[in-house]
Amino acid sequence: MIDLNHPKVKPLTREIASSLAIDQTFIDFVFADKRPECFRYWVEVVNGGWTCYVPDEFDVAYPLWSTNADQTLILVNGSTLSYGKGWHDNPDMEMISTTTQGLLSDLMIEIADSDEPNHDLRQAAAFCGYRFIDDLLAFIAGPIPKGMSWSEAKRQFIATVDANSR
Can you tell me the distance from the alpha carbon of 98 to that of 164, in angstroms, rounded to the nearest whole number? Predict the structure, then answer.
């Protein structure tokens, strides 16, 4: 599938991840051969998908994992990192976060929406280095702010995690 990728999509290595100053626990999670069962379907082998579009403002995109043929990516613009989802069949990019913790918030919300028990979510958080599990569980259990959609509340939660991760 790699030859279907946009030309800016390049393979991620541990050396590249380290040079980008990405947290070692996150790197270990990305390169893990085995993960807790709750990551199934959400974090699949990177070569199981491809990305057909990368916005012009990014120099390079490094796939982290795939989900149903769509890749989750590190997007690099100079020394600035962002995280997004590239679609295999849609020339668009879903921007998710500006930190690994924001990206993991998005992933953990997806897993929680699959009705995984809180114990399994906590185990998954420990495995991938996600530090905001208590906040995430409170967010999921709490009401959506009045006048806000679920997707808007989720984006706001991820932005708060990003701000608290710097």
Answer: 11
Whether the CB-CB separation of 12 and 86 falls below 8 Å is answered with no
b or e along 77-103 (b: 16 or more beta carbons within 10 Å of the residue's beta carbon)? eeeebbbbbbbbeeeebeebbbbbbbb
Sorted by where each begins, the domain ranges of the chain are 2-98, 104-164
Rounded CA-CA distance 116/108 in Å is 10
pLDDT tens-digit readout, 14-48? 999 999 999 999 999 999 999 999 999 999 999 88
Instruction: Write out pLDDT tens, residues 57-96.
Output: 999 999 999 999 899 999 999 999 999 999 888 888 999 9
